Amino acid sequence: MLEFSRATQFAYDYARANRISSWKTLHEKTYRKIRGFSMLPSQLCCKAIKLALETKRGCRNRKVDFRRELSIQYDHRSYSFDFSGRCSLATINGRLRLDLRVPEYYAKTYGDWEVRGAALCRSGKDLFLNVIVAKDLPAPAIGASSRTIGIDLGINNLAATSDGRFFKGVNNHIARLQGLRSRLQSKGTKSAKRHLKNLSGRQKRFMRSINHEVSRRIVSRINSGDMIVMENLHGIRSRRRGKVLNRLLSGWSFFQLRQLIEYKALRKGAIFVTVPAHYSSRECSRCHESRTERPGNAGFFHCLNCGYSCNADLNASFNLRDRADAARNVLGLFVNQPIVGDSISYSGKPTASAVGS
Ligand SMILES: [Zn+2]
166 by DSSP, 3-state: which? Predict the structure, then answer.
Protein backbone atom coordinates (compact mmCIF):
# COMPACT_ATOMS: atom_id res chain seq x y z
CA MET A 1 0.00 0.00 0.00
CA LEU A 2 2.84 2.36 0.80
CA GLU A 3 4.49 1.65 -2.53
CA PHE A 4 1.21 2.07 -4.38
CA SER A 5 0.46 5.39 -2.72
CA ARG A 6 4.02 6.60 -3.39
CA ALA A 7 3.65 5.76 -7.09
CA THR A 8 0.21 7.36 -7.31
CA GLN A 9 1.45 10.48 -5.56
CA PHE A 10 4.40 10.78 -7.94
CA ALA A 11 2.20 10.47 -11.04
CA TYR A 12 -0.38 12.82 -9.56
CA ASP A 13 2.15 15.51 -8.68
CA TYR A 14 3.77 15.15 -12.09
CA ALA A 15 0.43 15.49 -13.88
CA ARG A 16 -0.44 18.59 -11.88
CA ALA A 17 2.95 20.24 -12.27
CA ASN A 18 3.03 19.63 -16.02
CA ARG A 19 -0.68 20.05 -16.67
CA ILE A 20 -1.05 16.64 -18.21
CA SER A 21 -4.55 15.34 -18.73
CA SER A 22 -3.99 12.53 -21.22
CA TRP A 23 -3.46 9.04 -19.96
CA LYS A 24 -1.04 8.19 -22.75
CA THR A 25 1.22 11.18 -22.08
CA LEU A 26 1.27 10.67 -18.35
CA HIS A 27 2.07 7.01 -18.82
CA GLU A 28 4.95 7.80 -21.21
CA LYS A 29 6.40 10.38 -18.85
CA THR A 30 6.10 8.60 -15.53
CA TYR A 31 6.00 4.84 -16.03
CA ARG A 32 9.76 4.25 -16.32
CA LYS A 33 10.50 6.62 -13.48
CA ILE A 34 8.05 4.81 -11.21
CA ARG A 35 9.47 1.43 -12.15
CA GLY A 36 12.87 2.91 -11.27
CA PHE A 37 12.13 3.90 -7.69
CA SER A 38 9.32 1.50 -6.83
CA MET A 39 9.00 -2.24 -6.37
CA LEU A 40 5.49 -2.30 -7.81
CA PRO A 41 4.75 -4.82 -10.55
CA SER A 42 3.86 -3.35 -13.91
CA GLN A 43 0.07 -3.83 -13.69
CA LEU A 44 -0.09 -1.93 -10.40
CA CYS A 45 2.09 0.83 -11.84
CA CYS A 46 -0.40 1.32 -14.65
CA LYS A 47 -3.28 1.34 -12.21
CA ALA A 48 -1.50 3.91 -10.00
CA ILE A 49 -1.02 6.22 -12.99
CA LYS A 50 -4.67 5.79 -13.97
CA LEU A 51 -5.83 6.52 -10.45
CA ALA A 52 -3.61 9.63 -10.33
CA LEU A 53 -5.20 10.96 -13.50
CA GLU A 54 -8.77 10.18 -12.41
CA THR A 55 -8.14 11.89 -9.10
CA LYS A 56 -6.69 14.94 -10.83
CA ARG A 57 -9.80 15.17 -12.99
CA GLY A 58 -12.05 14.76 -9.97
CA CYS A 59 -10.45 17.36 -7.69
CA ARG A 60 -9.26 20.18 -9.86
CA ASN A 61 -8.19 22.66 -7.24
CA ARG A 62 -7.23 20.54 -4.33
CA LYS A 63 -3.92 18.83 -3.72
CA VAL A 64 -4.53 15.25 -2.70
CA ASP A 65 -2.29 13.35 -0.33
CA PHE A 66 -2.55 9.64 -1.12
CA ARG A 67 -0.61 8.67 1.98
CA ARG A 68 -3.44 9.76 4.23
CA GLU A 69 -5.67 6.87 3.28
CA LEU A 70 -3.72 3.91 2.06
CA SER A 71 -5.33 1.58 -0.44
CA ILE A 72 -4.60 -0.36 -3.61
CA GLN A 73 -6.88 -0.35 -6.64
CA TYR A 74 -7.01 -3.66 -8.46
CA ASP A 75 -8.34 -4.57 -11.88
CA HIS A 76 -8.66 -7.87 -13.71
CA ARG A 77 -4.99 -7.88 -14.64
CA SER A 78 -3.75 -7.46 -11.09
CA TYR A 79 -6.15 -9.61 -9.10
CA SER A 80 -8.67 -12.39 -9.30
CA PHE A 81 -11.55 -13.34 -7.09
CA ASP A 82 -14.44 -15.76 -7.13
CA PHE A 83 -17.27 -16.41 -4.72
CA SER A 84 -15.90 -19.74 -3.59
CA GLY A 85 -13.29 -17.58 -1.87
CA ARG A 86 -10.28 -18.08 -4.09
CA CYS A 87 -8.40 -14.85 -4.48
CA SER A 88 -5.03 -13.72 -5.78
CA LEU A 89 -3.51 -10.27 -5.49
CA ALA A 90 -0.50 -8.73 -7.18
CA THR A 91 1.99 -7.50 -4.56
CA ILE A 92 5.57 -6.25 -4.49
CA ASN A 93 6.54 -9.85 -3.70
CA GLY A 94 4.71 -11.43 -6.58
CA ARG A 95 1.27 -12.96 -6.62
CA LEU A 96 -0.30 -13.57 -3.21
CA ARG A 97 -2.85 -16.38 -3.09
CA LEU A 98 -5.53 -16.25 -0.42
CA ASP A 99 -8.52 -18.27 0.67
CA LEU A 100 -11.25 -15.94 1.81
CA ARG A 101 -14.38 -16.85 3.68
CA VAL A 102 -17.21 -15.29 1.69
CA PRO A 103 -20.41 -14.78 3.73
CA GLU A 104 -23.20 -16.97 2.42
CA TYR A 105 -25.46 -14.01 1.73
CA TYR A 106 -23.00 -12.46 -0.73
CA ALA A 107 -22.31 -15.73 -2.48
CA LYS A 108 -26.05 -16.25 -2.89
CA THR A 109 -26.87 -12.70 -4.00
CA TYR A 110 -23.89 -11.89 -6.21
CA GLY A 111 -22.59 -15.33 -7.16
CA ASP A 112 -23.69 -15.03 -10.79
CA TRP A 113 -22.56 -11.40 -11.20
CA GLU A 114 -19.45 -10.45 -13.11
CA VAL A 115 -16.49 -9.59 -10.89
CA ARG A 116 -14.95 -6.23 -11.83
CA GLY A 117 -12.30 -4.25 -9.97
CA ALA A 118 -11.50 -4.18 -6.29
CA ALA A 119 -9.92 -1.96 -3.70
CA LEU A 120 -7.80 -3.18 -0.83
CA CYS A 121 -8.36 -0.83 2.11
CA ARG A 122 -7.25 -0.64 5.68
CA SER A 123 -9.30 0.16 8.73
CA GLY A 124 -7.30 0.04 11.93
CA LYS A 125 -5.47 -3.26 11.93
CA ASP A 126 -7.90 -4.94 9.53
CA LEU A 127 -7.65 -5.21 5.78
CA PHE A 128 -10.72 -5.16 3.56
CA LEU A 129 -11.03 -6.17 -0.05
CA ASN A 130 -13.97 -4.29 -1.55
CA VAL A 131 -14.97 -6.20 -4.66
CA ILE A 132 -17.11 -4.56 -7.32
CA VAL A 133 -19.62 -6.78 -9.10
CA ALA A 134 -21.85 -5.97 -12.05
CA LYS A 135 -24.50 -7.52 -14.19
CA ASP A 136 -26.72 -6.64 -17.11
CA LEU A 137 -30.29 -6.04 -16.07
CA PRO A 138 -33.37 -7.49 -17.66
CA ALA A 139 -35.44 -4.97 -19.61
CA PRO A 140 -38.10 -3.35 -17.42
CA ALA A 141 -41.42 -5.14 -17.77
CA ILE A 142 -43.58 -2.18 -18.69
CA GLY A 143 -47.28 -2.69 -18.65
CA ALA A 144 -50.57 -1.08 -17.74
CA SER A 145 -49.75 -1.43 -14.06
CA SER A 146 -46.43 0.45 -14.29
CA ARG A 147 -46.45 3.46 -12.01
CA THR A 148 -44.48 6.66 -11.68
CA ILE A 149 -43.40 7.27 -8.11
CA GLY A 150 -41.87 10.50 -6.84
CA ILE A 151 -39.56 10.29 -3.84
CA ASP A 152 -38.79 13.41 -1.86
CA LEU A 153 -35.87 13.42 0.53
CA GLY A 154 -35.88 15.73 3.51
CA ILE A 155 -35.32 16.05 7.18
CA ASN A 156 -38.84 15.97 8.64
CA ASN A 157 -39.28 12.73 6.85
CA LEU A 158 -36.08 11.22 5.56
CA ALA A 159 -38.14 10.17 2.55
CA ALA A 160 -41.74 10.57 1.41
CA THR A 161 -43.10 8.71 -1.61
CA SER A 162 -45.97 9.80 -3.84
CA ASP A 163 -47.73 6.48 -3.19
CA GLY A 164 -48.15 7.76 0.34
CA ARG A 165 -45.39 6.23 2.39
CA PHE A 166 -43.27 8.10 4.90
CA PHE A 167 -39.89 7.18 6.31
CA LYS A 168 -39.07 8.72 9.64
CA GLY A 169 -36.62 11.53 9.93
CA VAL A 170 -33.50 11.08 11.93
CA ASN A 171 -32.99 14.61 13.24
CA ASN A 172 -33.03 13.42 16.84
CA HIS A 173 -30.17 11.03 16.28
CA ILE A 174 -28.14 13.56 14.37
CA ALA A 175 -28.80 16.27 16.92
CA ARG A 176 -27.59 13.96 19.67
CA LEU A 177 -24.44 13.00 17.83
CA GLN A 178 -23.79 16.60 16.86
CA GLY A 179 -24.25 17.80 20.43
CA LEU A 180 -21.77 15.24 21.67
CA ARG A 181 -19.39 16.22 18.89
CA SER A 182 -19.40 19.91 19.72
CA ARG A 183 -18.88 19.19 23.42
CA LEU A 184 -15.87 17.03 22.57
CA GLN A 185 -14.53 19.60 20.16
CA SER A 186 -14.60 22.34 22.75
CA LYS A 187 -12.75 20.08 25.19
CA GLY A 188 -9.81 19.49 22.83
CA THR A 189 -7.95 16.98 25.01
CA LYS A 190 -6.20 13.94 23.63
CA SER A 191 -8.90 11.55 24.74
CA ALA A 192 -11.58 13.88 23.37
CA LYS A 193 -9.86 13.75 20.00
CA ARG A 194 -9.83 9.97 20.10
CA HIS A 195 -13.52 9.93 20.95
CA LEU A 196 -14.17 12.34 18.12
CA LYS A 197 -12.52 10.01 15.66
CA ASN A 198 -14.60 7.06 16.87
CA LEU A 199 -17.68 9.19 16.65
CA SER A 200 -17.15 10.06 13.01
CA GLY A 201 -16.84 6.36 12.19
CA ARG A 202 -19.92 5.61 14.23
CA GLN A 203 -21.91 8.34 12.57
CA LYS A 204 -20.92 7.10 9.14
CA ARG A 205 -21.90 3.53 9.92
CA PHE A 206 -25.13 4.68 11.55
CA MET A 207 -26.04 6.74 8.50
CA ARG A 208 -25.18 3.98 6.13
CA SER A 209 -27.26 1.42 7.95
CA ILE A 210 -30.28 3.74 8.10
CA ASN A 211 -29.88 4.61 4.43
CA HIS A 212 -29.68 0.92 3.54
CA GLU A 213 -32.74 0.12 5.60
CA VAL A 214 -34.84 2.99 4.23
CA SER A 215 -33.86 2.34 0.62
CA ARG A 216 -34.63 -1.35 1.03
CA ARG A 217 -38.08 -0.58 2.39
CA ILE A 218 -38.82 1.99 -0.31
CA VAL A 219 -37.81 -0.36 -3.09
CA SER A 220 -39.63 -3.35 -1.59
CA ARG A 221 -42.89 -1.99 -3.03
CA ILE A 222 -41.43 -1.05 -6.40
CA ASN A 223 -42.11 -3.41 -9.29
CA SER A 224 -40.32 -3.99 -12.55
CA GLY A 225 -41.46 -1.33 -15.01
CA ASP A 226 -42.19 1.33 -12.40
CA MET A 227 -40.44 4.64 -12.81
CA ILE A 228 -38.81 6.30 -9.83
CA VAL A 229 -38.37 10.05 -9.86
CA MET A 230 -36.05 11.90 -7.52
CA GLU A 231 -34.63 15.37 -7.52
CA ASN A 232 -31.18 15.94 -8.89
CA LEU A 233 -28.82 16.63 -6.11
CA HIS A 234 -28.08 20.30 -6.48
CA GLY A 235 -31.36 21.09 -4.80
CA ILE A 236 -31.29 19.06 -1.66
CA ARG A 237 -28.86 21.17 0.28
CA SER A 238 -29.66 24.63 -0.93
CA ARG A 239 -33.41 24.64 -0.56
CA ARG A 240 -35.41 24.16 2.63
CA ARG A 241 -35.64 25.89 5.83
CA GLY A 242 -33.53 27.68 8.31
CA LYS A 243 -30.02 27.53 9.63
CA VAL A 244 -30.49 24.80 12.22
CA LEU A 245 -32.16 22.38 9.87
CA ASN A 246 -29.65 23.08 7.15
CA ARG A 247 -26.85 22.24 9.55
CA LEU A 248 -28.52 18.95 10.44
CA LEU A 249 -29.25 18.35 6.82
CA SER A 250 -25.69 18.82 5.69
CA GLY A 251 -24.69 16.07 8.11
CA TRP A 252 -26.87 13.52 6.38
CA SER A 253 -25.73 11.70 3.31
CA PHE A 254 -28.65 12.18 0.92
CA PHE A 255 -26.33 11.43 -1.94
CA GLN A 256 -25.69 7.99 -0.52
CA LEU A 257 -29.38 7.41 0.13
CA ARG A 258 -30.24 8.33 -3.45
CA GLN A 259 -27.52 6.06 -4.79
CA LEU A 260 -28.79 3.16 -2.70
CA ILE A 261 -32.37 3.71 -3.87
CA GLU A 262 -31.17 3.94 -7.46
CA TYR A 263 -29.20 0.73 -7.56
CA LYS A 264 -31.74 -1.25 -5.60
CA ALA A 265 -34.48 0.00 -7.94
CA LEU A 266 -32.49 -0.77 -11.08
CA ARG A 267 -31.83 -4.22 -9.75
CA LYS A 268 -35.58 -4.78 -9.59
CA GLY A 269 -36.05 -3.66 -13.19
CA ALA A 270 -37.40 -0.20 -12.41
CA ILE A 271 -36.52 2.95 -14.32
CA PHE A 272 -34.77 5.74 -12.49
CA VAL A 273 -34.88 9.41 -13.46
CA THR A 274 -33.93 12.65 -11.79
CA VAL A 275 -35.60 16.00 -12.36
CA PRO A 276 -34.62 19.50 -11.30
CA ALA A 277 -36.11 20.32 -7.94
CA HIS A 278 -36.72 24.05 -8.29
CA TYR A 279 -39.54 24.98 -5.97
CA SER A 280 -40.82 21.43 -5.76
CA SER A 281 -41.61 22.15 -2.13
CA ARG A 282 -43.29 25.50 -2.90
CA GLU A 283 -45.47 24.45 -5.79
CA CYS A 284 -49.02 23.22 -5.26
CA SER A 285 -49.35 19.69 -6.56
CA ARG A 286 -53.04 20.25 -7.40
CA CYS A 287 -53.19 23.60 -9.22
CA HIS A 288 -49.42 23.96 -9.85
CA GLU A 289 -49.33 27.53 -8.61
CA SER A 290 -46.36 28.63 -6.57
CA ARG A 291 -48.24 31.36 -4.73
CA THR A 292 -48.26 29.57 -1.43
CA GLU A 293 -47.40 29.89 2.19
CA ARG A 294 -43.87 29.01 2.95
CA PRO A 295 -43.56 25.37 3.91
CA GLY A 296 -42.16 24.63 7.32
CA ASN A 297 -45.39 25.36 9.06
CA ALA A 298 -45.22 22.10 11.03
CA GLY A 299 -44.34 20.29 7.83
CA PHE A 300 -47.64 21.28 6.30
CA PHE A 301 -48.27 22.69 2.85
CA HIS A 302 -51.12 25.08 2.18
CA CYS A 303 -52.00 26.55 -1.23
CA LEU A 304 -53.21 30.17 -1.25
CA ASN A 305 -54.54 29.76 -4.76
CA CYS A 306 -56.82 26.73 -4.54
CA GLY A 307 -56.88 26.03 -0.83
CA TYR A 308 -55.35 22.58 -1.14
CA SER A 309 -53.43 21.43 1.89
CA CYS A 310 -51.31 18.41 2.34
CA ASN A 311 -48.22 17.12 4.10
CA ALA A 312 -45.34 19.21 2.72
CA ASP A 313 -43.06 16.29 1.87
CA LEU A 314 -45.88 14.39 0.21
CA ASN A 315 -46.76 17.46 -1.85
CA ALA A 316 -43.12 17.68 -2.99
CA SER A 317 -43.10 14.00 -3.98
CA PHE A 318 -46.29 14.56 -6.07
CA ASN A 319 -44.53 17.42 -7.85
CA LEU A 320 -41.49 15.30 -8.66
CA ARG A 321 -43.75 12.58 -10.06
CA ASP A 322 -45.77 15.03 -12.15
CA ARG A 323 -42.67 16.73 -13.53
CA ALA A 324 -41.29 13.48 -14.87
CA ASP A 325 -44.65 12.52 -16.38
CA ALA A 326 -45.03 15.96 -17.94
CA ALA A 327 -41.55 15.86 -19.44
CA ARG A 328 -42.22 12.45 -20.88
CA ASN A 329 -45.48 13.56 -22.46
CA VAL A 330 -43.91 16.68 -23.95
CA LEU A 331 -41.17 14.62 -25.49
CA GLY A 332 -43.72 12.06 -26.66
CA LEU A 333 -41.84 9.18 -25.17
CA PHE A 334 -43.14 5.85 -24.13
CA VAL A 335 -42.32 4.86 -20.65
CA ASN A 336 -39.47 2.60 -21.65
CA GLN A 337 -37.65 5.20 -23.70
CA PRO A 338 -34.87 7.16 -22.09
CA ILE A 339 -35.60 10.77 -21.32
CA VAL A 340 -32.84 12.81 -22.84
CA GLY A 341 -32.16 16.48 -22.42
CA ASP A 342 -30.28 18.88 -20.22
CA SER A 343 -32.71 18.93 -17.41
CA ILE A 344 -33.57 15.32 -16.90
CA SER A 345 -31.12 12.55 -16.51
CA TYR A 346 -31.98 8.98 -16.81
CA SER A 347 -30.53 5.67 -15.91
CA GLY A 348 -31.85 2.21 -16.35
CA LYS A 349 -31.98 1.61 -20.07
CA PRO A 350 -32.55 -2.04 -20.78
CA THR A 351 -28.86 -2.80 -21.11
CA ALA A 352 -27.73 -0.77 -18.12
CA SER A 353 -25.54 -2.39 -15.54
CA ALA A 354 -26.16 -2.35 -11.85
CA VAL A 355 -23.04 -2.03 -9.82
CA GLY A 356 -22.78 -3.02 -6.19
CA SER A 357 -19.89 -3.68 -3.89
ZN1 LIG B 1 -53.20 24.97 -5.38
Answer: strand
